[in-house]
Amino acid sequence: MNMHDQLTRSLEARYYTDPAHFELEKSGMLARTWQFAGHSSELEKSGDYFTVEIAGESIICLRDQEGVLRAYYNVCQHRAHQLVQGAGNARLLVCPYHSWTYELTGGLRSGPNIKSVPGLDRNQICLSSVRIEDFLGFLFINLDPEAKPMDDWFPNVGKELSAFVPQIERLRPLEWIEIEENCNWKVSVENYSECYHCPINHQTFATGIIKPETYNILPQGYCLRHTTECQNLDRMSYEIDPSSNEHAGDYSSWYLWPGFSFQVYPGNLLNTYHWRPVDVDHVKVWRGWFTVDGVDDEIVRRLAVQDRSTTVEEDIHLVESVQRGLNSRGYRPGPLVIDPACGVNSEHSIKALHGWMREI
């Protein structure tokens, strides 16, 4: 075999540019994977609810009167009107169309004049449930009723995150930032999932937060685990106390396929990325920053501003240029740089991602 033929190549451009492929993802992979819906602090009280769109479906996430987390397709079982919009608190879910009314446990409670219908048993009518999990205070849903639990998909991640962020279940969002990128969601995810480009394009991150030469990314189930050491203290762009706990001087990230990442900066500072595909060449990236009990923190605020003006802004230009290039008739899938020793200058993580992307 020609050595040239043994190269591992990037995916063909159609994976990122073909609207038909995006529709396949919505009905297939995006509907069979764990998708971030929101934070548990949004459902603190019984009756709290919010809606979220996953794989083209509107989903209601709520906490019922007994405190149980539940999720349903946002559609009335009468004549398909959506039940609620946005977020709020309710003792019952009442359809605005004909006032069919559902318990928070999903069962039909009442509807105008339904008792006059022979054979209509309201006990046989209920909202369509969706799988929901509370993962260290972060809520994920899966449209596949047969999906394995998140701990099976992402082995050891919960334990590791709890070690890096000891108070993770007390965290609350300090701020959410929505960033629109004119690219396919997978282009943005791939860019996040390698640091081959970091020393060239992310000077602040590479010189003021991490030591690029120590950066590595390894698959862990359907997770890509990023690890590196923090930069020398005299070069850090913010102050940390590396002796405060075991992982205070470490950086680590857990990218959970396909659209969410926990990222712990040195000093045990948790931030998150969440990719919400819009269409074949647009994605919304939500950047979250968290503190214990949501208490304001000047260091986190400053770090969020620094991140937006450097790494985030730099990545927008990169991924949008890639999307334009993928639409060029001159592009041919190039070889990935696969170093057997892995490390920062290797794209072995992209090879793993491409394997998952093919599992439509």
Q: Give the N-to-C terminal Cα separation.
A: 29 Å
What is the CATH top level name of the largest domain? Alpha Beta
The total count of strands amounts to: 17
CATH superfamily of the largest domain, by name, is Naphthalene 1,2-dioxygenase Alpha Subunit, Chain A, domain 1
**CATH architectural designation of the largest domain:** Alpha-Beta Complex
Question: How are the SSEs placed, and which strands pair?
Answer:
Layout: H1 14-17, H2 19-27, E1 35-39, E2 48-54, E3 57-63, E4 69-73, E5 87-89, E6 93-94, E7 101-102, E8 108-110, E9 131-135, E10 138-142, H3 150-153, H4 157-164, E11 171-181, H5 185-192, H6 198-201, H7 203-208, E12 216-219, E13 223-229, E14 250-256, E15 260-265, E16 269-279, E17 282-292, H8 298-326, H9 348-357
Name a few traits of the molecule.
single chain, 360 residues, alpha+beta, Rieske Iron-sulfur Protein, Naphthalene 1,2-dioxygenase Alpha Subunit, Chain A, domain 1, seven-stranded antiparallel β-sheet, four-stranded antiparallel β-sheet, 9 helices, globular
Account of the 3D structure:
The chain has 360 residues and is α+β, with helices and mostly antiparallel strands. The chain has two domains: 35-142, Rieske [2Fe-2S] iron-sulphur domain (Rieske Iron-sulfur Protein), CATH 2.102.10; 155-357, Naphthalene 1,2-dioxygenase Alpha Subunit, Chain A, domain 1, CATH 3.90.380.10. The chain has nine helices and 17 strands. The protein has helices at residues 14-17, 19-27, 150-153, 157-164, 185-192, 198-201, 203-208, 298-326, 348-357; strands at 35-39, 48-54, 57-63, 69-73, 87-89, 93-94, 101-102, 108-110, 131-135, 138-142, 171-181, 216-219, 223-229, 250-256, 260-265, 269-279, 282-292. The strands form four sheets. A seven-stranded antiparallel beta sheet has the order 11-17-16-15-14-13-12, sandwiched between helices. A four-stranded antiparallel beta sheet has the order 4-3-2-5, with no helix packed on it. β7 (101-102) and β8 form a beta hairpin. The mean pLDDT is 90.
